[in-house]
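Worked example 3 (structure in, sequence out).
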């Protein structure tokens, strides 16, 4: 069956695409696209086939294969494996052979692999003795980058484009497949993955109908679920861990006069502490006195970090991991912004008391030096706390706005440091604060909804131009700074260069209309990203951080809309799959990932599963539900829909029993609401059935794969939990909702039907006593309901796993009978 080059996120076992070098893409092209593609594909043809392990085929192609051997294969197809050299080297044995090529047209090489093989080694292809593409990441990468059981039970194919200069005017080319250590540093000490077949062909499609492949029906079983008591224990443990962490941070600050919380990126102790104090329902600081004590600890942290800065100004540029991105001390401004409403609360602290506190004399005990400051104000006068905090924040503001990149994740990580520092200047009433509109513009460019104009141009104290050349290729421990950065910028001595109209001069590397987020909600990197696309997982935290801040209401609305629009856009590049044990779950499409290619892709229910951040997006849906009037009307219709999708993605993860297997470490992100409360609401948020990102049905192993489709979710449930266990009776309201349930495993097998309404999926109790699904025509879709493996009580247990609204009866699932 031909596979279209145009269907980017597609192909594998029944065919292959050469849409990208080394692409291992999945999913069959819809029939219309295939027909359209084939019409323009006249002349696309297979030129040659080498069947490894077949003596006649190997001899006909002049195979030279020292240090390799024939291994038993699959589906009647044998393979060759490359063994270690003697003595071992960074490469193993190689397969060198001759293949027919077209002397005029573009040629491609495709190699067949077994999806159940595990090997960390890379396969690099060579033509006429020269390497094809890059050894590491790039748009023309290795033929096989190393895989762990990427497609159990099936074959997959990898394709690389052959350079024209090596085929033009020739009818044959020498191909070499060489096995390397994945990092090109360690020794190859084990056999490689199996090499089954090699093909040359013209055009970016290859018909493989005659290829041997196994019969494979993808199972829909899930991993074993945890008992409800275990789930509750995990939730309780998570909350207890957060409380313990908060109390531990309090003790850490109180332990000594110079106690402080870490502001190193990804440690973020001060961010966690301030966020928990300001927003978390579980925070142990409940009374006004306890909140004031916690506020004073935050002020103490800012004091001690400021003293560090005065003693070594270079800390601003390199104070910790990735401190050169956005400035190390932006975190101080961020913490002050987060707790601003508590500062203003007269029952806790009060703005007047804070003003008096800031005007106190501040001593650092430091002297002027190349990378140090004397404890005086800019004019040499008395130093106050307001002036000292203001200097470190101003310096961070200048540093962050002058040292930027042009791709989304780097703009976010760098420019947000300017916003954080600038908002800190506002909170302390600094003369260096430039106004709310300025802050909002920085946030808009940073997050992607306002055009990004590039670095802000700075001048020195005398108005002289500064040499602020930088390259973010030199980053973190290798970061470099010009002398002007050290002498002026990180000491807070630079100012903005203004044009004739008084506006800050910008570098304008991409003009005046380029946003780092597309209209559809994708981030602009160097290409499509999945792993680095996760930078937007910080957006919900931005939303909760800015919620309730007077003057930031419009900004907060923009962030909420952007967060959910981006989540929706990312959902289209996720697909249902099987893990190494053939259990159902979902993956991120990473074959064509420009930055971190991975086959078959990281586990992810829209978000990378190991991040453990799906509840941050559920909290956005929760917030919208709690403020229906604010988000009413047609302007918010898409956002409300995307919020329901976010709930659906989380419910799908719960239904697949994949949520509780990932346990986020306490402190990585403090949820605004109690996490248990968010979990409980997953099954009772209002709204209609959600169709998540459109995941087209794909073809695997030559058979239609019905698991790839929309990401549905378990519908909201508000019915009373009246269950007659003796008769296995389902309540009428629950039954009506379940009749609308659409699961990925139930989607139509034909790709052309994917985008049409599949209709309701009806539940019926079979003679075996289990619930089964059938479509609107009465055809049975599955042998047994995939959510449950023990009858209707188990279905209810899945639907009610995290319990109903407190006013509803609680259902305790019956113990399952041995199967």
């Amino acid at each position: 069956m031909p596979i279209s080059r145009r269907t980017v996120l597609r192909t594998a076992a029944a065919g292959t695409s050469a849409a990208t070098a080394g692409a291992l893409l999945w999913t069959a092209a819809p029939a219309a696209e295939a027909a359209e593609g084939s019409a323009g594909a006249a002349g696309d043809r297979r030129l040659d086939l080498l069947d490894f392990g077949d003596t006649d085929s190997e001899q006909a192609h002049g195979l030279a294969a020292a240090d390799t051997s024939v291994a038993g294969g699959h589906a009647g197809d044998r393979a060759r494996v490359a063994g270690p050299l003697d003595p071992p080297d960074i490469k193993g044995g190689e397969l060198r052979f001759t293949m027919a090529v077209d002397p005029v047209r573009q040629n491609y090489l495709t190699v067949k692999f077994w999806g159940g093989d595990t090997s960390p080694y890379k396969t690099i292809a060579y033509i006429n003795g020269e390497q094809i593409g890059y050894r590491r990441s790039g748009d023309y990468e290795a033929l096989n980058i190393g895989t762990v059981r990427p497609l159990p039970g099936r074959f997959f194919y990898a394709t690389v484009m052959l350079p024209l200069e090596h085929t033009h005017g020739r009818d044959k080319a020498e191909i070499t497949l060489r096995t390397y250590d994945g990092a090109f540093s360690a020794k190859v000490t084990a056999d490689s993955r199996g090499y089954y077949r090699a093909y040359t062909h013209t055009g970016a499609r290859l018909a493989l109908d005659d290829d041997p492949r196994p019969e494979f029906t993808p199972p829909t079983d899930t991993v074993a679920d945890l008992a409800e008591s275990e789930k509750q224990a995990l939730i309780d443990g998570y909350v207890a861990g957060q409380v313990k962490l908060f109390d531990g941070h309090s003790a850490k600050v109180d332990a000594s006069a110079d106690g402080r919380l870490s502001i190193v990126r990804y440690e973020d102790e001060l961010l966690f502490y301030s966020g928990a104090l300001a927003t978390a329902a579980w925070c142990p600081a409940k009374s006004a006195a306890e909140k004031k004590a916690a506020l004073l600890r935050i002020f103490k942290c800012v004091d001690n970090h400021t003293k560090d800065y005065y003693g070594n100004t270079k800390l601003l540029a390199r104070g910790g991991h990735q401190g050169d991105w956005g400035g190390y001390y932006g975190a101080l401004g961020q913490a002050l912004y987060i707790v601003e409403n508590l500062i203003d609360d007269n029952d806790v602290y009060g703005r007047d008391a804070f003003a008096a506190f800031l005007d106190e004399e501040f001593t650092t005990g430091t002297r002027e030096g190349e990378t140090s400051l004397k404890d005086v104000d800019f004019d040499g006068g008395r130093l106050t706390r307001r002036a000292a905090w203001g200097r470190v924040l101003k310096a961070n503001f200048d540093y962050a706005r002058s040292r930027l990149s042009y791709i989304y994740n780097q703009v976010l990580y760098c420019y947000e440091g300017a916003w954080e520092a600038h908002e800190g200047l506002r909170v302390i009433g600094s003369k260096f604060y430039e106004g709310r509109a300025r802050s909002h513009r920085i946030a808009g460019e940073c997050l992607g909804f306002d055009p990004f104009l590039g670095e802000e141009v700075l001048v020195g104290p005398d108005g002289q131009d500064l040499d602020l050349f930088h390259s973010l290729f030199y980053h973190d421990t290798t970061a470099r700074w010009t002398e002007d950065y050290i002498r002026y910028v990180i000491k807070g001595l630079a100012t903005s260069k203004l044009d004739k109209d008084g506006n800050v001069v910008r570098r304008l590397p991409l003009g005046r209309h380029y946003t780092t987020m597309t209209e559809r909600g994708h981030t602009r990197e160097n290409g499509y990203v999945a792993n680095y696309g996760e930078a937007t997982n910080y957006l919900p935290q931005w939303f909760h951080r800015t919620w309730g801040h007077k003057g930031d209401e419009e900004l907060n609305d923009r962030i909420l809309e952007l967060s959910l629009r981006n989540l929706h856009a990312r959902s289209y590049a996720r697909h249902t799959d099987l893990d190494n044990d053939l259990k159902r779950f979902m993956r991120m499409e990473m074959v064509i990932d420009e930055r971190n290619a991975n086959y078959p892709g990281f586990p992810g229910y829209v978000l990378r599963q190991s991040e453990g951040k799906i509840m941050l997006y559920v909290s956005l849906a929760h917030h919208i539900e709690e403020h229906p009037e604010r988000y009413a009307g047609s302007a918010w219709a898409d956002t409300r829909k995307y919020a329901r999708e976010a709930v659906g993605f989380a419910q799908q993860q719960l239904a697949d029993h994949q949520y509780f297997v990932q346990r986020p470490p306490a402190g990585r992100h403090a949820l605004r609401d109690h996490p248990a409360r968010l979990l409980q609401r997953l099954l009772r948020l209002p709204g209609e059935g959600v169709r998540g990102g459109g995941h087209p049905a794909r073809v695997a192993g030559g058979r239609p794969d019905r698991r790839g489709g929309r990401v549905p979710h378990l519908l909201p449930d508000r019915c009373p939990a009246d269950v007659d266990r003796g008769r296995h009776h389902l309540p009428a309201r629950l039954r009506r909702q379940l009749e609308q349930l659409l699961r990925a495993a139930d989607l139509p097998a034909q790709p052309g039907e994917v985008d049409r309404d599949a209709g309701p999926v009806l539940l019926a109790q079979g003679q075996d006593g289990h619930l089964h699904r059938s479509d609107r025509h009465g055809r049975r879709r599955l042998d047994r309901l995939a959510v449950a493996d023990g009858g209707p009580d188990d279905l209810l247990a899945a639907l009610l796993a995290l319990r109903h609204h407190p006013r509803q009866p609680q259902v305790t699932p019956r113990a399952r009978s041995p199967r």
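Notes: The radius of gyration is 30 Å. The CA atoms of residues 627 and 688 lie 18 Å apart.
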